[in-house]
Give the backbone structure.
Amino acid sequence: MIDDLDLDELRKSRRIGYYFRYPLHRNNFHDLRIGNRVYGHYAAKPLYGKLTPEGRVDRSAGFNGDIAVLFVPLAAGDPGDVELFIAHTAPENLVLPAGKRNWKKINETAVAFVTKRLEENDLLKKYN
């Protein structure tokens, strides 16, 4: 369960810390609901398209349409149980006309991607 997971330890994992460089908090995660059932929790963030020569995120490049998604199954006990996915949508879907992130579309894309991946790999039974 997300409340039992050490989120600081999770972020220390190279595969996760590369995309989620900021401290993770419980409120970064949302229920992953499929139908009326919760299968776990997820956090999502849009990714920028380039890095600077120093290896930092180049925000001037804008979003590239990729979304980093962490999926934490309900039974997750340690960071090894957490899955990292990279979902994709059209880059213009990630920003509202006012220039702010389109969190509704970011979260919809993340949920659709994780749900499809779980269905394809017949993992819904595993997380039941």
Remarks:
- The chain has a mean pLDDT of 89.
- Residues 2-120 form one domain.
- Residues 119 and 125 are 9 Å apart (CA to CA).
